[in-house]
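Bug report (template v2)

What were you trying to do?
Predict the complex of my protein with fe (ii) ion.

What happened?
Run completed; filing so the output is reviewed.

Input:
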Amino acid sequence: MLKLKRVELLFPSPLLHFAVPDCEPLNEDLLRLGHRLREHSPGIRRSNRQGWHSGGNLFREASSAVSVLESWIHIALSAAMDKLSARGDGPDPRFHIDGWMNINPLGGFNAPHTHPDCHWSGVYYVRQPRPRSRNAGMIEFIDPRRELNEYKGLRIKVYKGRRALLGQPGELYLFPSYLLHMVYPNDSEEERVSIAFNATLKGTEEDVEIP
Ligand SMILES: [Fe+2]
């Protein structure tokens, strides 16, 4: 009789969930900042559809709230590198963080996309309206193997992986930048507000193993 000895999952994609403590005052400050920035800028178009996407690097704004959030992101990155044993024996790797704010009104969503040319990406939730319908306002991660040319046309279950999550205020997700994702339309009159970011290792890219 053939014996199955074990199943080994090769090259899984990590998704790390963090919770920022005592996030309410931070989120109120970030909401105020977002409203102020939106008053002075029409925003830019990336994956956002019917939503406002801030221009430039949000973390260069003179705001204590974004400084606090950036500190939490650095802590999360360090924890991720530790958890995945990706740090090696060297010093704590330094990251450059580039971020932006997304404000999705009723009907606003983000088309499927990846974040090329960076190592980690993530999102922090400032405000998440209560959804009225299934999947509304959820972020969905899609198995990147679906996009490999060799497998694009195959409709077999193992390559159809999707994971949808309704991030709550104060939650921070971290994932490899290659991981395809999208955001379903907001179906609430209340705006959905999140801050997305990219993290790029400084200087030692060739020496640091990342997931
Ligand atoms: Fe994204």
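What did the reviewer find?
DSSP finds two helices and eleven strands in the chain. Residues 47, 113, 115, 181, 196 surround fe (ii) ion (CB under 6 Å).
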